[in-house]
UniProtKB/TrEMBL annotation:
Xref: SUPFAM superfamilies: alpha/beta-Hydrolases
Taxonomic superkingdom: Bacteria
Record InterPro entries: AB_hydrolase_1 (IPR000073), AB_hydrolase_fold (IPR029058), Carboxylesterase_BioH (IPR050228)
Name under which the protein is recorded: Alpha/beta hydrolase
UniProt source species: Streptomyces boncukensis
Length: 256
Protein backbone atom coordinates (compact mmCIF):
# COMPACT_ATOMS: atom_id res chain seq x y z
CA UNK A 1 0.00 0.00 0.00
CA UNK A 2 1.30 3.42 -0.95
CA UNK A 3 2.51 5.77 1.81
CA UNK A 4 0.22 8.57 2.92
CA UNK A 5 0.82 11.83 4.74
CA UNK A 6 -0.24 11.12 8.30
CA UNK A 7 -2.52 13.64 10.02
CA UNK A 8 -0.62 15.32 12.79
CA UNK A 9 -0.31 18.13 15.31
CA UNK A 10 2.73 20.40 15.29
CA UNK A 11 4.07 21.97 18.47
CA UNK A 12 6.94 24.49 18.42
CA UNK A 13 9.01 26.21 15.76
CA UNK A 14 12.53 25.34 16.86
CA UNK A 15 15.37 24.15 14.62
CA UNK A 16 15.61 20.64 16.08
CA UNK A 17 12.86 18.64 14.38
CA UNK A 18 11.25 15.71 16.18
CA UNK A 19 8.59 13.18 15.17
CA UNK A 20 6.93 11.47 18.15
CA UNK A 21 5.07 8.19 17.55
CA UNK A 22 2.35 6.82 19.81
CA UNK A 23 1.90 3.29 21.10
CA UNK A 24 -0.68 0.51 20.81
CA UNK A 25 -3.33 1.85 23.19
CA UNK A 26 -3.55 5.45 21.98
CA UNK A 27 -3.45 7.83 19.06
CA UNK A 28 -1.36 11.00 19.04
CA UNK A 29 -3.27 12.07 22.15
CA UNK A 30 -0.90 9.80 24.08
CA UNK A 31 1.40 12.81 24.36
CA UNK A 32 -1.24 15.28 25.55
CA UNK A 33 0.16 15.30 29.08
CA UNK A 34 3.57 16.60 28.02
CA UNK A 35 2.62 19.25 25.43
CA UNK A 36 2.57 22.24 27.78
CA UNK A 37 6.06 21.43 29.11
CA UNK A 38 7.83 21.11 25.75
CA UNK A 39 10.52 23.59 24.69
CA UNK A 40 8.90 25.21 21.66
CA UNK A 41 11.87 27.43 20.91
CA UNK A 42 14.49 24.72 20.62
CA UNK A 43 12.29 22.06 19.03
CA UNK A 44 9.62 21.52 16.40
CA UNK A 45 7.57 18.49 17.39
CA UNK A 46 5.15 16.63 15.16
CA UNK A 47 2.70 14.11 16.66
CA UNK A 48 1.03 11.94 13.98
CA UNK A 49 -1.73 9.35 14.04
CA UNK A 50 -0.71 5.96 12.67
CA UNK A 51 -3.08 4.03 10.41
CA UNK A 52 -5.98 2.60 12.36
CA UNK A 53 -5.85 5.36 14.98
CA UNK A 54 -7.35 8.80 15.56
CA UNK A 55 -8.13 10.57 12.30
CA UNK A 56 -7.05 7.41 10.46
CA UNK A 57 -9.22 5.04 12.51
CA UNK A 58 -11.11 3.90 9.41
CA UNK A 59 -8.20 4.05 6.98
CA UNK A 60 -7.16 0.81 5.29
CA UNK A 61 -3.67 -0.55 5.77
CA UNK A 62 -1.45 -3.47 6.54
CA UNK A 63 -0.84 -2.06 10.04
CA UNK A 64 2.82 -3.02 10.18
CA UNK A 65 5.97 -1.27 11.30
CA UNK A 66 7.26 -1.28 7.71
CA UNK A 67 4.17 0.47 6.40
CA UNK A 68 4.31 2.97 9.27
CA UNK A 69 7.97 3.73 8.55
CA UNK A 70 7.09 4.57 4.94
CA UNK A 71 4.23 6.76 6.12
CA UNK A 72 6.48 8.60 8.59
CA UNK A 73 9.06 9.28 5.90
CA UNK A 74 6.30 10.59 3.62
CA UNK A 75 5.25 12.89 6.48
CA UNK A 76 8.82 14.14 6.91
CA UNK A 77 9.03 14.79 3.16
CA UNK A 78 5.79 16.76 3.23
CA UNK A 79 7.21 18.92 6.00
CA UNK A 80 10.48 19.44 4.16
CA UNK A 81 12.39 17.73 6.97
CA UNK A 82 15.52 16.07 5.61
CA UNK A 83 16.87 15.17 9.07
CA UNK A 84 14.97 14.75 12.29
CA UNK A 85 14.99 12.94 15.62
CA UNK A 86 12.49 10.24 16.52
CA UNK A 87 10.59 9.54 19.73
CA UNK A 88 8.48 6.42 20.14
CA UNK A 89 6.42 5.05 22.99
CA UNK A 90 5.98 1.28 23.39
CA UNK A 91 4.86 0.01 19.93
CA UNK A 92 6.03 3.36 18.56
CA UNK A 93 9.52 2.45 19.75
CA UNK A 94 9.55 -0.45 17.32
CA UNK A 95 8.14 1.72 14.54
CA UNK A 96 10.90 4.33 14.83
CA UNK A 97 13.51 1.60 14.58
CA UNK A 98 11.96 0.56 11.26
CA UNK A 99 12.49 4.11 10.02
CA UNK A 100 16.15 3.69 10.93
CA UNK A 101 16.42 0.55 8.77
CA UNK A 102 15.00 2.39 5.76
CA UNK A 103 16.65 5.82 6.02
CA UNK A 104 19.41 5.82 8.65
CA UNK A 105 21.01 8.95 7.21
CA UNK A 106 17.89 10.96 8.03
CA UNK A 107 17.64 10.07 11.73
CA UNK A 108 19.53 12.40 14.04
CA UNK A 109 18.75 10.97 17.50
CA UNK A 110 16.29 8.44 18.83
CA UNK A 111 14.37 8.24 22.13
CA UNK A 112 12.45 5.12 23.09
CA UNK A 113 9.90 5.47 25.88
CA UNK A 114 9.17 2.05 27.42
CA UNK A 115 9.94 0.90 23.88
CA UNK A 116 9.40 -2.47 22.25
CA UNK A 117 12.76 -3.85 21.02
CA UNK A 118 13.49 -4.64 17.37
CA UNK A 119 13.40 -8.36 18.15
CA UNK A 120 10.37 -10.62 18.64
CA UNK A 121 8.84 -10.70 22.11
CA UNK A 122 8.36 -13.94 23.99
CA UNK A 123 4.95 -14.56 25.58
CA UNK A 124 3.66 -17.51 27.53
CA UNK A 125 0.32 -18.89 26.35
CA UNK A 126 -1.75 -17.03 28.94
CA UNK A 127 -0.12 -13.66 28.25
CA UNK A 128 -0.37 -14.02 24.48
CA UNK A 129 -4.06 -14.81 24.82
CA UNK A 130 -4.51 -11.71 26.99
CA UNK A 131 -2.91 -9.47 24.35
CA UNK A 132 -4.28 -11.24 21.27
CA UNK A 133 -7.91 -10.76 22.34
CA UNK A 134 -7.59 -7.23 23.70
CA UNK A 135 -9.23 -5.86 20.55
CA UNK A 136 -12.57 -7.44 21.52
CA UNK A 137 -12.34 -7.61 25.32
CA UNK A 138 -12.19 -4.35 27.29
CA UNK A 139 -11.28 -6.28 30.43
CA UNK A 140 -8.14 -7.52 28.67
CA UNK A 141 -7.14 -3.98 27.82
CA UNK A 142 -7.67 -2.91 31.41
CA UNK A 143 -5.66 -5.83 32.75
CA UNK A 144 -2.75 -5.09 30.42
CA UNK A 145 -2.65 -1.41 31.40
CA UNK A 146 -2.92 -2.28 35.09
CA UNK A 147 -0.17 -4.92 34.95
CA UNK A 148 2.23 -2.77 32.95
CA UNK A 149 1.91 0.11 35.41
CA UNK A 150 2.59 -2.09 38.45
CA UNK A 151 -1.00 -2.57 39.67
CA UNK A 152 -0.78 0.73 41.52
CA UNK A 153 -2.79 3.40 39.67
CA UNK A 154 -6.37 4.60 40.31
CA UNK A 155 -9.25 2.58 38.90
CA UNK A 156 -10.77 5.67 37.29
CA UNK A 157 -7.56 6.31 35.34
CA UNK A 158 -7.47 2.68 34.15
CA UNK A 159 -11.10 2.85 33.06
CA UNK A 160 -10.45 6.10 31.21
CA UNK A 161 -7.48 4.61 29.38
CA UNK A 162 -9.63 1.67 28.26
CA UNK A 163 -12.41 3.94 26.99
CA UNK A 164 -9.96 6.16 25.13
CA UNK A 165 -8.14 3.24 23.53
CA UNK A 166 -11.43 1.82 22.24
CA UNK A 167 -12.53 5.22 20.96
CA UNK A 168 -9.36 6.04 19.06
CA UNK A 169 -8.47 2.66 17.49
CA UNK A 170 -10.18 0.34 15.02
CA UNK A 171 -10.45 -3.25 16.30
CA UNK A 172 -9.11 -4.73 13.05
CA UNK A 173 -6.09 -2.43 13.11
CA UNK A 174 -5.53 -2.98 16.83
CA UNK A 175 -5.45 -6.75 16.28
CA UNK A 176 -3.12 -6.53 13.29
CA UNK A 177 -0.75 -4.13 15.02
CA UNK A 178 -0.23 -6.64 17.82
CA UNK A 179 1.11 -9.22 15.38
CA UNK A 180 3.48 -6.65 13.91
CA UNK A 181 5.00 -5.11 17.05
CA UNK A 182 5.12 -8.35 19.01
CA UNK A 183 6.39 -10.86 16.46
CA UNK A 184 8.59 -9.04 13.95
CA UNK A 185 12.33 -9.50 14.37
CA UNK A 186 14.64 -7.13 12.53
CA UNK A 187 17.21 -6.50 15.26
CA UNK A 188 20.00 -7.66 12.94
CA UNK A 189 19.22 -4.63 10.74
CA UNK A 190 19.73 -2.10 13.56
CA UNK A 191 22.48 -3.81 15.53
CA UNK A 192 25.59 -1.64 15.56
CA UNK A 193 23.85 1.56 14.42
CA UNK A 194 25.97 4.46 15.65
CA UNK A 195 23.39 7.17 16.23
CA UNK A 196 22.82 8.42 19.80
CA UNK A 197 19.94 6.60 21.51
CA UNK A 198 18.27 7.12 24.87
CA UNK A 199 15.86 4.60 26.36
CA UNK A 200 13.49 5.86 29.07
CA UNK A 201 11.69 3.28 31.21
CA UNK A 202 9.53 3.29 34.31
CA UNK A 203 10.64 1.42 37.41
CA UNK A 204 7.13 -0.04 37.80
CA UNK A 205 6.98 -1.54 34.29
CA UNK A 206 7.36 -5.32 34.86
CA UNK A 207 8.34 -6.23 31.28
CA UNK A 208 9.79 -3.37 29.23
CA UNK A 209 12.03 -2.39 32.11
CA UNK A 210 15.72 -1.61 32.63
CA UNK A 211 16.70 -5.27 32.55
CA UNK A 212 14.91 -5.85 29.24
CA UNK A 213 16.51 -2.74 27.74
CA UNK A 214 20.01 -3.84 28.72
CA UNK A 215 19.44 -7.14 26.96
CA UNK A 216 18.13 -5.54 23.76
CA UNK A 217 18.42 -1.82 23.04
CA UNK A 218 21.63 -1.26 24.97
CA UNK A 219 23.16 -4.44 23.55
CA UNK A 220 22.35 -3.51 19.95
CA UNK A 221 23.05 0.24 19.89
CA UNK A 222 26.65 1.09 20.85
CA UNK A 223 25.75 4.68 21.81
CA UNK A 224 22.60 3.85 23.75
CA UNK A 225 21.99 5.03 27.30
CA UNK A 226 19.30 4.23 29.84
CA UNK A 227 17.18 6.45 32.10
CA UNK A 228 14.84 4.90 34.66
CA UNK A 229 11.99 7.00 36.06
CA UNK A 230 11.37 5.78 39.62
CA UNK A 231 7.71 6.85 39.84
CA UNK A 232 6.51 5.61 36.44
CA UNK A 233 5.33 2.39 34.88
CA UNK A 234 4.66 1.87 31.17
CA UNK A 235 3.01 5.27 30.61
CA UNK A 236 5.43 8.02 31.68
CA UNK A 237 3.63 10.65 29.60
CA UNK A 238 0.64 10.20 31.92
CA UNK A 239 2.37 9.17 35.14
CA UNK A 240 5.40 11.50 35.27
CA UNK A 241 5.12 13.95 32.36
CA UNK A 242 7.61 16.55 33.58
CA UNK A 243 10.27 13.95 34.33
CA UNK A 244 9.72 12.47 30.87
CA UNK A 245 10.11 15.82 29.12
CA UNK A 246 13.34 16.46 30.99
CA UNK A 247 14.69 13.01 30.07
CA UNK A 248 13.78 13.52 26.41
CA UNK A 249 14.88 17.10 25.88
CA UNK A 250 18.14 16.97 27.81
CA UNK A 251 19.16 14.16 25.49
CA UNK A 252 17.83 15.66 22.28
CA UNK A 253 19.61 18.98 22.79
CA UNK A 254 22.93 17.39 23.77
CA UNK A 255 24.46 17.83 20.30
CA UNK A 256 23.37 21.43 19.80
Amino acid sequence: MAPLVLPHVRVGEGPHRVIAVHGWFADRGAYAGVLDALDRTAFSYVFPDLRGYGELRDTAGEFTTSEAAADLLALADSLGWERFSLVGHSMGGKVIQRVLTVAPERVRRMVGIAPVPAGALQFNEETRDLFAHADERPDNRRAIIDITTGNRLPAAWLDGMVRESARCSAPKAFRAWFGSWADEDFHDQVEGAELPVRVVVGAHDPELNAEAMRATWLAWYPRAELVELPCAGHYPADETPLELVRAMEDFLRADE
